[in-house]
Amino acid sequence: MSENKLTFYGQEFDNRLLLGTALYPSPEIMQQAVKASGAEIVTVSLRRESAQGKAGQKFWGLIKELDVFVLPNTAGCKTVKEAVTTAHMAREVFDTKWIKLEVIGDDDTLQPDVIGLVEAARILNEEGFEVFPYMTEDLIIADRLAEAGCKVLMPWGAPIGTGQGLTNRQGLKALRARFPDFPLVVDAGIGAPSHAAEAMELGYDAVLINTAVAKANDPIGMAKAFTQALQAGRTAYLSGLMEKRDMATPSTPTLGQPFWHKHEA
């Protein structure tokens, strides 16, 4: 992968923010937030936004005006069959092989059913989809998804919509180390630009945000803030962060420090 480009399935992007399109005060504010952020990829749930009727047609019209890549989402699907069926519908509606694959296993935490996720990913990859799996930071599941044909992994930072940030930093670091050449995206749980910057400082390639932008007092300003945070975090990672130390180390050199002689009377 290029150091300066975000690459998914052979497509290159400059902006490392993937932005969700749900929960905004209005579709118009959503559109303005996407434009303000400079995001080149947006996620859309086929289950939430129907292509039928005036409201659905207006929403699709706004998305098309943005001239961005659409990553359809199987949000809310709880079974392999449901997720695969939704993916087929999304491919037909959006004319894309991309699919953000969710198979939800728990209603309270919205934690993915990782067993069903691997099965659905294998089916969709065999059918020619380009799968973006929403997963936990589990290394074994990551291995299984890679074996199933996934070329991108999307571990959560925390449960969807909680805004808790990176609750298992060491687990995310281990995943980055295990898959040094895979595009890795922190998906879910990011609540502040500082969380996004931290993900980038760990060497992650992108972050997917929805609630933290859509539910902000000023979604447009928050979208800009996240893009700026991602840029800062990426630059810091490439520049090389200092290592933490147990003991203090003076930052001012002693060589060349001014000193004064006491004059004799």
What's the average pLDDT? 90
Q: Strand-and-helix sequence, N→C?
A: EEEHEHEHEHEHEHEHEHH
Could you describe the largest sheet, including whether it forms a barrel? Answer: 5 strands, parallel
Lateral strand order in the biggest sheet: 5-4-3-10-9
Net shape: globular
Helix content: 40-55%
Report the radius of gyration as a whole number of Å.
Answer: 22 Å
- Structural class category: alpha/beta
Distance between the termini: 71 Å
Strand content range: 5-15%
Q: Can you tell me the residue ranges where pLDDT is under 50 for at least 5 consecutive residues?
A: none
Total number of helical segments? 9
The beta-strand count equals: 10
Would you kindly provide a written description of the structure presented here, covering whatever features stand out?
The longest helix is centred in the C-terminal third of the chain and has 21 residues. β4, α2 and β5 form a beta-alpha-beta unit. The strands form 3 sheets. Strands 5-4-3-10-9 form a 5-stranded parallel β-sheet. The protein has a 3-stranded parallel β-sheet with strand order 6-7-8. The protein has 9 helices and 10 strands. It is globular, with a radius of gyration of 22 Å. α1 packs parallel to α9 and α4 packs parallel to α5. The N and C termini lie far apart (71 Å). The protein is α/β, with parallel strands linked by helices. Helices cover 40% and strands 15% of the residues.
Write a concise synopsis of the structure shown.
The chain has 265 residues and is an alpha/beta fold.
Please describe the topology of this protein.
Blueprint: E1 6-8, E2 11-13, E3 17-20, H1 27-37, E4 41-45, H2 53-66, E5 69-73, H3 80-94, E6 98-101, H4 114-126, E7 130-135, H5 139-147, E8 154-155, H6 169-178, E9 185-187, H7 193-201, E10 206-209, H8 211-214, H9 219-239
Parallel strand pairs: 3-4, 3-10, 4-5, 6-7, 7-8, 9-10
Antiparallel strand pairs: 1-2
